[in-house]
Structure formats: structure tokens, C-alpha cells
Write a structure and sequence with these properties.
The chain is about 35% helix and about 15% strand. The chain is built from nine helices and twelve strands. The strands form three sheets. Strands 5-6-2-7-1-8-9-12 form an eight-stranded mixed sheet, with helices on both faces. The chain has a two-stranded antiparallel ribbon with strand order 3-4.
Length: about 280
Amino acid sequence: MADKNNENQENCTHDCSSCGSACSKKQTKISLGKGSSVKKVIAVVSGKGGVGKSLVTTLLATEMNKKGYRTAILDGDITGSSIPTGFGMGTADIFVKDEMLEPAVTKSGIQFIGTNLLLQHETDPLAWRGAKIAGQLLQFWKDVRWHDVDYMFIDTPPGTGDVSLTLFQSIPVDGIIIVSTPQSLVKMIVEKAINLANLMNVPIIGLVESMSFVKCPDCGKEMRIFGKSHVDEISQAYGLPVLARIPIDENISKAVDEGKIEDVDADFMQGAVDLISTMMKAKK
């Protein structure tokens, strides 16, 4: 496959409109819509589902917002949107103003758009094929009026397929954060995400380990129920910083279920927030 990708790049005609290959040369960035402003875009990715990308996206946006930055979330997991639950949002009356869709706003001021807000019922399935899903992602980028956003976090769908390619080729992503869990199987999945980012020439900010440990409520000891973590191996192999290790915590789960994720004291995310702020400022 790597040889095939190299061959595609060597034989490139520079006509991206008819090309189906994934290559870093295929760059057709789409501009924001009228009246929108987004300074930095960070995508939260992984090579598989169920590792906690949506939680990481939510916590990053929330903690950056607490630091005084204007943040937004574009829920790119079009058919599996789950972020609204954590903010206490169900289906919403999204309205159009001057031909642009206005995003929903959480109680702390985070701008948000996702398919669950547009459905009549949040449990309605979206039986869409890849092209339509990718098209919806781009509509959320260009047809929503994003108001003076400092940091936009994009929650990506699982895997490295159509939507991820559309995202990296069409939206000016400043960096990605890769989410993993401690199991050894995830090492291979994370490396897929790393290799895709390198193929598309998208900078990797660092790694976040979800479900890292459980802290004993009596003695405070950290118990690693999934066994030894492998995130440090990946960190050392690729020279990437570990931005955060998120515990399994019933208080976080309860906050999500009750729509109060903005009230969580996520001190374990502070290293990630500080590093993101420093890295992104250095790119100005």
C-alpha cells in the first residue's frame, strides 16, 4: 500500500477533483462561510472507536474555555454524534440567519454543531453513505457562522477512511491529538492514525491516554485494570508527548449522563491545555 501511495504521488496529474487517492499533495482547502472566524483547528482522532475521543474533545474545549479562550466543537462523528449528551443538549431549534446556520451555545459559551441537534429525535439513525457523511462535515465547516473562535476542536469518526481524508484535505487543520487506551492492541491502531497524519502532512500535537487508571477512593492508589500502559512506548518511538492520562472516574460518567460535563474539575487535562496553548501560539 505504501508503494502504491508513492506511485500515485509520482504520477500525480495535479487534478485533485478526479483523484481518489490519499496523498499529501491533494489539498483543496475550503474557506469558512460569511462572517465566520476560526483561528486554530485541532482534530481529535484515533484509528478505532470506543477509546474516548468524544470525551477528550469535550474536556479539551471545556478546559480551554475556562482559560479564557473562545472555543468551539464541530462534531465530525456524523452518524454517531454523542457529545450533546454531556452538555445537556438534545435536539435543538437551530436557526438560519443571513443564509448561515447559527451554532448552538453551551451554558459556558462553547459553540457547538452536530447532527443530533438537527434530528427530530436524537435516536433517529442516519443511514448515509460515505460521500454524504463527508459532505455534511464540510457543511458544518463552511455553512455555520463560527463567532470569533480561538480554538475549534473536531471530534472525528473512528478509523482512517473517507471522512478523515476529507477532513485533512479540505479543512485547514493545525494539528491533531491522538487518543489511545492502555491495551497493547491499541498500539497498532494508534500507529495507523500516526501514519495517516504523516501521509497527509498534518502535525501531531501529542497523545492522550483514556481509561488510564482507576484511583482507589480509600487509599488513593492508582490501579491499572487494563494492564500495563503502552502509550509511553508509542511516545518514545515517535517522539510525541503524552498530553494527559484520563482516569476511569464515576464522577465524570455521572457528569456526562446529567449533562454537566462543564462542571467537571479536570485537573488531569491541564498539561494538555498548557502545551496546546504554547504550541499554537508559537505557530502565529
